[in-house]
Specification:
Layout (H helix, E strand, L loop, with lengths): L7 H19 L18 H20 L10 H4 L24 H21 L2 H34 L22 E4 L2 E5 L15 E5 L2 E4 L5 H9 L11 H10 L7 E4 L2 E6 L2 E4 L11 H10 L7 H11 L34 E7 L25 E4 L16 E3 L8 E2 L3 E3 L7
Parallel strand pairs: 8-11
Antiparallel strand pairs: 1-4, 2-3, 4-12, 5-6, 6-7, 8-9, 9-10
Helix pairs in contact: 1-4, 1-5, 2-4, 2-5, 7-8
The protein binds fe (ii) ion.
Length: about 425
Protein backbone atom coordinates (compact mmCIF):
# COMPACT_ATOMS: atom_id res chain seq x y z
CA UNK A 1 0.00 0.00 0.00
CA UNK A 2 2.94 2.30 0.62
CA UNK A 3 6.68 2.42 0.56
CA UNK A 4 6.95 5.60 2.60
CA UNK A 5 9.41 5.51 5.49
CA UNK A 6 8.29 7.47 8.54
CA UNK A 7 9.76 7.99 12.00
CA UNK A 8 7.56 7.32 15.05
CA UNK A 9 7.26 11.08 15.70
CA UNK A 10 6.30 11.74 12.11
CA UNK A 11 3.72 8.97 12.19
CA UNK A 12 2.13 10.26 15.39
CA UNK A 13 2.09 13.82 14.06
CA UNK A 14 0.31 12.68 10.91
CA UNK A 15 -2.05 10.53 12.98
CA UNK A 16 -3.00 13.53 15.14
CA UNK A 17 -3.46 15.73 12.08
CA UNK A 18 -5.87 13.32 10.36
CA UNK A 19 -7.82 12.54 13.52
CA UNK A 20 -8.15 16.20 14.52
CA UNK A 21 -9.44 17.09 11.07
CA UNK A 22 -12.28 14.57 11.36
CA UNK A 23 -13.33 16.14 14.64
CA UNK A 24 -13.19 19.62 13.14
CA UNK A 25 -15.58 18.50 10.38
CA UNK A 26 -18.02 17.13 12.97
CA UNK A 27 -17.72 20.18 15.24
CA UNK A 28 -20.47 22.31 13.61
CA UNK A 29 -22.96 19.44 14.04
CA UNK A 30 -25.16 18.84 17.08
CA UNK A 31 -25.47 15.33 18.57
CA UNK A 32 -28.90 15.14 16.87
CA UNK A 33 -27.39 16.08 13.48
CA UNK A 34 -24.78 13.37 14.02
CA UNK A 35 -27.38 10.64 14.63
CA UNK A 36 -29.64 10.95 11.57
CA UNK A 37 -29.47 8.52 8.63
CA UNK A 38 -31.54 10.02 5.81
CA UNK A 39 -31.28 7.04 3.42
CA UNK A 40 -29.57 3.61 3.41
CA UNK A 41 -26.40 4.88 1.66
CA UNK A 42 -25.91 7.63 4.24
CA UNK A 43 -24.20 6.91 7.55
CA UNK A 44 -24.61 9.08 10.64
CA UNK A 45 -21.68 11.39 11.39
CA UNK A 46 -21.01 9.74 14.73
CA UNK A 47 -20.94 6.35 13.00
CA UNK A 48 -18.19 7.62 10.67
CA UNK A 49 -16.27 8.98 13.66
CA UNK A 50 -16.54 5.64 15.46
CA UNK A 51 -15.93 3.40 12.43
CA UNK A 52 -12.60 5.02 11.49
CA UNK A 53 -11.58 4.58 15.13
CA UNK A 54 -12.65 0.94 15.03
CA UNK A 55 -10.40 0.57 11.95
CA UNK A 56 -7.28 1.52 13.94
CA UNK A 57 -8.40 -0.58 16.90
CA UNK A 58 -9.03 -3.63 14.71
CA UNK A 59 -6.22 -3.51 12.18
CA UNK A 60 -3.44 -2.06 14.36
CA UNK A 61 -4.07 -2.36 18.10
CA UNK A 62 -5.69 -5.80 18.15
CA UNK A 63 -2.58 -7.55 16.81
CA UNK A 64 0.15 -5.40 18.31
CA UNK A 65 -0.93 -3.83 21.61
CA UNK A 66 0.31 -5.88 24.58
CA UNK A 67 -2.67 -7.23 26.55
CA UNK A 68 -5.12 -5.87 23.99
CA UNK A 69 -8.77 -5.65 25.01
CA UNK A 70 -11.43 -3.85 22.95
CA UNK A 71 -12.70 -0.55 24.32
CA UNK A 72 -16.21 -2.00 24.21
CA UNK A 73 -17.06 -5.57 23.16
CA UNK A 74 -20.12 -4.65 21.12
CA UNK A 75 -18.40 -1.83 19.23
CA UNK A 76 -16.79 -4.57 17.16
CA UNK A 77 -20.28 -5.47 15.95
CA UNK A 78 -21.63 -1.91 15.60
CA UNK A 79 -18.75 -0.29 13.75
CA UNK A 80 -17.56 -3.02 11.39
CA UNK A 81 -18.62 -1.75 7.94
CA UNK A 82 -18.30 -4.68 5.55
CA UNK A 83 -15.47 -7.02 6.65
CA UNK A 84 -16.90 -10.55 6.46
CA UNK A 85 -13.62 -12.01 7.73
CA UNK A 86 -14.17 -10.20 11.04
CA UNK A 87 -17.59 -11.69 11.69
CA UNK A 88 -21.17 -10.42 11.91
CA UNK A 89 -22.01 -6.71 11.94
CA UNK A 90 -24.93 -4.39 12.44
CA UNK A 91 -27.28 -3.72 9.50
CA UNK A 92 -26.10 -0.76 7.41
CA UNK A 93 -29.57 0.70 6.61
CA UNK A 94 -30.35 0.76 10.36
CA UNK A 95 -27.33 2.78 11.53
CA UNK A 96 -29.61 5.76 12.17
CA UNK A 97 -31.51 3.79 14.80
CA UNK A 98 -28.53 3.70 17.13
CA UNK A 99 -29.00 6.41 19.73
CA UNK A 100 -26.26 4.99 21.97
CA UNK A 101 -23.34 5.44 22.05
CA UNK A 102 -24.09 9.14 21.65
CA UNK A 103 -21.87 11.63 19.86
CA UNK A 104 -20.10 12.47 23.12
CA UNK A 105 -19.41 8.81 23.97
CA UNK A 106 -18.00 8.34 20.48
CA UNK A 107 -15.62 11.16 21.33
CA UNK A 108 -14.53 9.21 24.42
CA UNK A 109 -13.95 6.13 22.27
CA UNK A 110 -11.86 8.18 19.86
CA UNK A 111 -9.79 9.64 22.69
CA UNK A 112 -9.14 6.21 24.16
CA UNK A 113 -7.92 4.72 20.88
CA UNK A 114 -5.86 7.84 20.13
CA UNK A 115 -3.97 7.48 23.41
CA UNK A 116 -3.35 3.79 22.83
CA UNK A 117 -2.20 4.37 19.25
CA UNK A 118 0.30 7.02 20.35
CA UNK A 119 1.61 4.73 23.11
CA UNK A 120 1.94 1.81 20.73
CA UNK A 121 3.80 3.72 18.02
CA UNK A 122 6.17 5.20 20.62
CA UNK A 123 6.93 1.74 22.03
CA UNK A 124 7.64 -0.19 18.81
CA UNK A 125 11.13 -1.15 17.74
CA UNK A 126 12.24 0.15 14.33
CA UNK A 127 11.61 -3.12 12.50
CA UNK A 128 8.07 -3.56 13.80
CA UNK A 129 7.30 0.09 13.15
CA UNK A 130 8.40 -0.25 9.54
CA UNK A 131 6.23 -3.36 9.11
CA UNK A 132 3.22 -1.66 10.67
CA UNK A 133 3.55 1.70 8.91
CA UNK A 134 1.66 0.67 5.73
CA UNK A 135 -1.45 -0.37 7.66
CA UNK A 136 -1.34 2.77 9.84
CA UNK A 137 -1.04 4.84 6.66
CA UNK A 138 -3.96 2.91 5.22
CA UNK A 139 -5.84 4.01 8.34
CA UNK A 140 -5.02 7.66 7.52
CA UNK A 141 -6.28 7.37 3.97
CA UNK A 142 -9.29 5.36 5.09
CA UNK A 143 -10.17 8.13 7.55
CA UNK A 144 -9.75 10.72 4.77
CA UNK A 145 -12.19 8.77 2.62
CA UNK A 146 -14.65 8.92 5.49
CA UNK A 147 -14.04 12.66 5.93
CA UNK A 148 -15.42 13.08 2.41
CA UNK A 149 -18.26 10.64 3.08
CA UNK A 150 -19.10 12.48 6.30
CA UNK A 151 -19.59 15.71 4.32
CA UNK A 152 -21.55 13.98 1.55
CA UNK A 153 -23.80 12.38 4.14
CA UNK A 154 -24.32 15.57 6.15
CA UNK A 155 -25.30 17.29 2.91
CA UNK A 156 -28.00 14.69 2.34
CA UNK A 157 -29.17 14.75 5.96
CA UNK A 158 -29.53 18.56 5.98
CA UNK A 159 -31.22 18.51 2.56
CA UNK A 160 -34.14 16.65 4.12
CA UNK A 161 -34.74 19.38 6.68
CA UNK A 162 -37.36 21.96 5.60
CA UNK A 163 -35.55 24.60 7.68
CA UNK A 164 -32.78 24.41 5.02
CA UNK A 165 -29.92 24.52 7.54
CA UNK A 166 -26.43 25.40 6.33
CA UNK A 167 -23.33 23.45 7.39
CA UNK A 168 -20.47 25.78 6.40
CA UNK A 169 -18.91 27.62 3.50
CA UNK A 170 -20.32 30.42 1.39
CA UNK A 171 -21.81 30.60 -2.11
CA UNK A 172 -19.80 31.59 -5.18
CA UNK A 173 -20.76 34.75 -7.05
CA UNK A 174 -23.33 34.18 -9.78
CA UNK A 175 -21.50 33.28 -12.98
CA UNK A 176 -22.15 32.38 -16.59
CA UNK A 177 -20.37 29.34 -18.08
CA UNK A 178 -16.78 29.98 -19.12
CA UNK A 179 -15.97 29.18 -22.75
CA UNK A 180 -15.46 25.46 -23.42
CA UNK A 181 -12.24 24.40 -25.16
CA UNK A 182 -10.72 21.04 -26.08
CA UNK A 183 -7.36 19.45 -25.39
CA UNK A 184 -6.08 17.06 -28.08
CA UNK A 185 -4.23 13.95 -26.95
CA UNK A 186 -2.17 11.81 -29.27
CA UNK A 187 -2.83 8.46 -27.58
CA UNK A 188 -0.91 5.35 -28.62
CA UNK A 189 0.55 2.71 -26.32
CA UNK A 190 0.54 4.37 -22.90
CA UNK A 191 0.89 3.27 -19.28
CA UNK A 192 -1.59 3.89 -16.48
CA UNK A 193 -1.75 2.92 -12.83
CA UNK A 194 0.48 3.63 -9.85
CA UNK A 195 4.10 2.70 -10.35
CA UNK A 196 6.17 4.96 -8.11
CA UNK A 197 6.61 5.66 -4.42
CA UNK A 198 4.04 7.11 -2.09
CA UNK A 199 0.73 5.84 -0.84
CA UNK A 200 -1.75 4.21 -3.18
CA UNK A 201 -4.69 1.87 -2.70
CA UNK A 202 -4.27 -1.65 -4.02
CA UNK A 203 -6.77 -1.03 -6.83
CA UNK A 204 -4.40 1.51 -8.46
CA UNK A 205 -1.88 -1.23 -9.23
CA UNK A 206 -0.26 -2.76 -11.17
CA UNK A 207 0.85 -0.14 -13.66
CA UNK A 208 0.16 -1.52 -17.12
CA UNK A 209 -0.05 -0.70 -20.80
CA UNK A 210 -3.19 0.46 -22.59
CA UNK A 211 -3.77 1.34 -26.23
CA UNK A 212 -5.54 4.67 -26.86
CA UNK A 213 -6.72 5.98 -30.21
CA UNK A 214 -6.19 9.74 -30.65
CA UNK A 215 -8.86 11.64 -28.68
CA UNK A 216 -9.68 14.94 -27.08
CA UNK A 217 -11.03 15.98 -23.71
CA UNK A 218 -13.15 18.99 -22.83
CA UNK A 219 -10.92 21.42 -20.95
CA UNK A 220 -13.52 21.98 -18.21
CA UNK A 221 -16.51 20.27 -16.58
CA UNK A 222 -20.08 20.50 -17.89
CA UNK A 223 -21.85 23.44 -16.24
CA UNK A 224 -25.27 23.90 -14.65
CA UNK A 225 -26.10 26.26 -17.52
CA UNK A 226 -25.47 23.50 -20.05
CA UNK A 227 -27.46 21.07 -17.92
CA UNK A 228 -30.41 23.48 -17.96
CA UNK A 229 -30.22 23.42 -21.78
CA UNK A 230 -30.30 19.62 -21.70
CA UNK A 231 -33.38 19.75 -19.46
CA UNK A 232 -35.06 22.41 -21.62
CA UNK A 233 -34.51 20.12 -24.63
CA UNK A 234 -36.47 17.39 -22.79
CA UNK A 235 -33.28 15.49 -22.00
CA UNK A 236 -34.93 13.59 -19.16
CA UNK A 237 -37.89 12.61 -21.35
CA UNK A 238 -36.23 11.36 -24.53
CA UNK A 239 -35.60 7.62 -24.35
CA UNK A 240 -33.26 7.71 -27.35
CA UNK A 241 -30.63 9.53 -25.26
CA UNK A 242 -30.54 6.91 -22.51
CA UNK A 243 -29.09 3.50 -21.91
CA UNK A 244 -31.90 1.02 -21.28
CA UNK A 245 -31.08 0.65 -17.57
CA UNK A 246 -30.79 4.42 -17.24
CA UNK A 247 -34.16 4.99 -18.88
CA UNK A 248 -35.72 2.47 -16.48
CA UNK A 249 -34.14 4.36 -13.58
CA UNK A 250 -35.34 7.78 -14.82
CA UNK A 251 -38.88 6.48 -14.97
CA UNK A 252 -38.78 4.52 -11.72
CA UNK A 253 -37.34 7.47 -9.77
CA UNK A 254 -39.10 10.21 -11.83
CA UNK A 255 -35.77 12.02 -12.25
CA UNK A 256 -36.01 15.35 -14.04
CA UNK A 257 -33.00 17.23 -12.62
CA UNK A 258 -29.80 16.56 -10.59
CA UNK A 259 -30.28 15.21 -7.06
CA UNK A 260 -30.31 18.46 -5.10
CA UNK A 261 -32.28 20.62 -7.54
CA UNK A 262 -35.84 21.67 -6.68
CA UNK A 263 -38.14 23.78 -8.86
CA UNK A 264 -40.01 26.53 -7.05
CA UNK A 265 -42.27 28.90 -8.97
CA UNK A 266 -40.42 28.17 -12.21
CA UNK A 267 -36.96 28.74 -10.71
CA UNK A 268 -34.52 25.88 -10.09
CA UNK A 269 -32.92 25.97 -6.65
CA UNK A 270 -30.00 23.87 -5.45
CA UNK A 271 -29.32 22.61 -1.93
CA UNK A 272 -25.66 23.03 -0.99
CA UNK A 273 -23.69 22.73 2.24
CA UNK A 274 -23.96 26.49 2.61
CA UNK A 275 -27.72 26.66 2.07
CA UNK A 276 -30.26 26.64 -0.75
CA UNK A 277 -29.78 29.05 -3.66
CA UNK A 278 -30.88 29.54 -7.27
CA UNK A 279 -28.89 27.24 -9.57
CA UNK A 280 -25.69 29.05 -10.56
CA UNK A 281 -25.27 28.56 -14.33
CA UNK A 282 -21.49 29.00 -14.34
CA UNK A 283 -20.69 26.26 -11.81
CA UNK A 284 -20.12 22.62 -12.74
CA UNK A 285 -23.22 20.43 -12.60
CA UNK A 286 -22.99 18.02 -9.68
CA UNK A 287 -24.78 15.09 -8.10
CA UNK A 288 -25.68 13.42 -11.37
CA UNK A 289 -25.54 9.65 -11.88
CA UNK A 290 -23.51 7.78 -14.48
CA UNK A 291 -26.75 7.27 -16.42
CA UNK A 292 -27.41 11.01 -16.52
CA UNK A 293 -23.79 11.81 -17.44
CA UNK A 294 -23.98 9.30 -20.28
CA UNK A 295 -27.33 10.65 -21.56
CA UNK A 296 -26.00 14.21 -21.45
CA UNK A 297 -22.92 13.21 -23.46
CA UNK A 298 -25.12 11.51 -26.05
CA UNK A 299 -27.33 14.61 -26.25
CA UNK A 300 -24.21 16.76 -26.75
CA UNK A 301 -22.95 14.46 -29.55
CA UNK A 302 -19.95 13.48 -27.42
CA UNK A 303 -19.07 10.69 -25.01
CA UNK A 304 -17.53 10.14 -21.57
CA UNK A 305 -13.76 9.53 -21.38
CA UNK A 306 -12.44 6.13 -20.36
CA UNK A 307 -10.42 6.11 -17.15
CA UNK A 308 -7.24 5.44 -19.16
CA UNK A 309 -7.97 8.47 -21.37
CA UNK A 310 -8.58 10.62 -18.30
CA UNK A 311 -5.41 9.56 -16.50
CA UNK A 312 -3.15 9.76 -19.55
CA UNK A 313 -4.48 13.20 -20.51
CA UNK A 314 -4.08 14.59 -16.98
CA UNK A 315 -0.53 13.24 -16.63
CA UNK A 316 0.45 14.44 -20.10
CA UNK A 317 -1.06 17.85 -19.40
CA UNK A 318 1.01 18.15 -16.22
CA UNK A 319 -2.03 19.12 -14.13
CA UNK A 320 -1.42 19.14 -10.37
CA UNK A 321 -3.60 19.43 -7.29
CA UNK A 322 -2.05 22.82 -6.49
CA UNK A 323 -4.85 25.38 -6.42
CA UNK A 324 -7.51 22.74 -7.07
CA UNK A 325 -10.89 23.13 -5.39
CA UNK A 326 -10.52 20.36 -2.83
CA UNK A 327 -11.98 20.37 0.69
CA UNK A 328 -9.19 22.58 2.01
CA UNK A 329 -10.96 25.53 0.40
CA UNK A 330 -13.98 26.94 2.21
CA UNK A 331 -16.56 26.59 -0.56
CA UNK A 332 -17.44 22.91 0.04
CA UNK A 333 -18.92 23.20 -3.45
CA UNK A 334 -17.70 23.15 -7.06
CA UNK A 335 -16.69 26.53 -8.43
CA UNK A 336 -16.44 28.08 -11.90
CA UNK A 337 -13.54 26.93 -14.06
CA UNK A 338 -12.22 30.37 -14.97
CA UNK A 339 -11.09 31.30 -18.48
CA UNK A 340 -9.56 28.85 -20.94
CA UNK A 341 -5.82 28.31 -20.63
CA UNK A 342 -5.23 25.82 -23.42
CA UNK A 343 -4.74 23.15 -20.75
CA UNK A 344 -7.12 21.05 -18.66
CA UNK A 345 -9.07 23.04 -16.08
CA UNK A 346 -10.65 21.41 -13.02
CA UNK A 347 -8.62 18.20 -13.52
CA UNK A 348 -8.59 17.79 -9.74
CA UNK A 349 -11.26 18.84 -7.30
CA UNK A 350 -14.68 20.39 -7.95
CA UNK A 351 -16.46 17.17 -9.05
CA UNK A 352 -15.55 13.52 -9.38
CA UNK A 353 -15.74 12.82 -13.10
CA UNK A 354 -17.70 9.83 -14.37
CA UNK A 355 -15.77 7.70 -16.84
CA UNK A 356 -17.04 5.12 -19.31
CA UNK A 357 -14.91 2.46 -17.54
CA UNK A 358 -16.37 -0.31 -15.43
CA UNK A 359 -14.57 -0.80 -12.12
CA UNK A 360 -12.53 -3.90 -12.81
CA UNK A 361 -9.18 -5.16 -11.53
CA UNK A 362 -6.13 -4.04 -13.47
CA UNK A 363 -4.23 -6.89 -15.15
CA UNK A 364 -2.28 -8.73 -12.44
CA UNK A 365 -4.27 -7.29 -9.50
CA UNK A 366 -4.36 -9.47 -6.40
CA UNK A 367 -6.08 -8.40 -3.19
CA UNK A 368 -4.06 -8.80 -0.01
CA UNK A 369 -4.77 -11.89 2.11
CA UNK A 370 -7.03 -11.59 5.14
CA UNK A 371 -9.62 -9.00 6.13
CA UNK A 372 -7.64 -6.07 4.71
CA UNK A 373 -8.00 -7.66 1.25
CA UNK A 374 -11.71 -6.86 1.46
CA UNK A 375 -10.94 -3.13 1.29
CA UNK A 376 -11.37 -2.70 -2.49
CA UNK A 377 -11.24 -5.91 -4.50
CA UNK A 378 -14.61 -7.37 -3.61
CA UNK A 379 -16.42 -4.30 -4.96
CA UNK A 380 -15.17 -4.78 -8.52
CA UNK A 381 -18.57 -5.52 -9.98
CA UNK A 382 -21.49 -3.38 -11.16
CA UNK A 383 -19.76 -0.05 -10.49
CA UNK A 384 -18.21 2.65 -12.68
CA UNK A 385 -14.92 4.48 -12.12
CA UNK A 386 -14.77 8.20 -11.31
CA UNK A 387 -11.59 10.26 -11.39
CA UNK A 388 -10.11 13.49 -10.05
CA UNK A 389 -11.57 14.19 -6.59
CA UNK A 390 -14.14 16.79 -5.63
CA UNK A 391 -14.71 19.87 -3.48
CA UNK A 392 -15.23 17.59 -0.45
CA UNK A 393 -12.07 15.50 -0.99
CA UNK A 394 -9.32 16.21 1.56
CA UNK A 395 -6.15 17.76 0.23
CA UNK A 396 -3.55 15.04 -0.20
CA UNK A 397 -6.21 12.53 -1.14
CA UNK A 398 -6.39 13.29 -4.89
CA UNK A 399 -3.91 11.93 -7.41
CA UNK A 400 -3.74 10.93 -11.08
CA UNK A 401 -4.11 7.20 -10.44
CA UNK A 402 -6.89 7.35 -7.79
CA UNK A 403 -9.89 5.19 -8.73
CA UNK A 404 -13.16 6.10 -7.05
CA UNK A 405 -16.20 3.98 -7.86
CA UNK A 406 -19.96 4.09 -7.47
CA UNK A 407 -22.94 2.21 -8.92
CA UNK A 408 -24.41 3.60 -12.16
CA UNK A 409 -27.44 5.13 -10.45
CA UNK A 410 -25.64 6.76 -7.48
CA UNK A 411 -26.17 10.52 -7.21
CA UNK A 412 -25.23 11.37 -3.65
CA UNK A 413 -21.50 11.52 -4.45
CA UNK A 414 -20.29 14.92 -5.65
CA UNK A 415 -20.10 13.66 -9.23
CA UNK A 416 -20.00 15.65 -12.46
CA UNK A 417 -19.20 15.31 -16.14
CA UNK A 418 -16.29 15.96 -18.49
CA UNK A 419 -16.91 15.25 -22.16
CA UNK A 420 -14.60 13.42 -24.54
CA UNK A 421 -14.57 13.15 -28.30
CA UNK A 422 -12.76 11.21 -31.01
CA UNK A 423 -10.83 8.02 -30.35
CA UNK A 424 -12.80 5.06 -29.16
CA UNK A 425 -16.54 4.90 -29.85
CA UNK A 426 -19.06 5.42 -27.07
CA UNK A 427 -18.65 2.66 -24.52
CA UNK A 428 -21.76 1.57 -22.69
CA UNK A 429 -21.96 -0.29 -19.43
FE1 LIG B 1 -14.60 2.41 6.06
Amino acid sequence: MSTTHRSADDLVARYDEVRTHTESLAAPLSPEDQTVQSMPDVSPTKWHRAHVTWFFETFVLADHEPGFAPFQDRYWFLFNSYYETLGPRYSRPDRGLISRPGAHEVGTYRGNVDGRMRDLVASLDAGTLEKLTPVIELGFHHEQQHQELLLLDVKHVLSRNPLQPAYAGRPSATATPDTLGWVDVEGGLVEIGHGGDGFRFDNEEPRHRVWLEPYRLADRLVTNGEWLEFMADNGYRRHELWLSDGWAQVNAETWRAPLYWVELDGVWLEHTLHGTFPVNAGLPVSHVSFYEAEAFATWAGKRLPSEAEWEHAVVTDGATTEGANLADSDTFHPRASGPSTGRLRQAYGDCWEWTSSAYHPYPGFHPAPGAIGEYNGKFMSNQMVLRGGCALTPKGHARATYRNFFPHSARWALSGVRLADGGAPRVSA
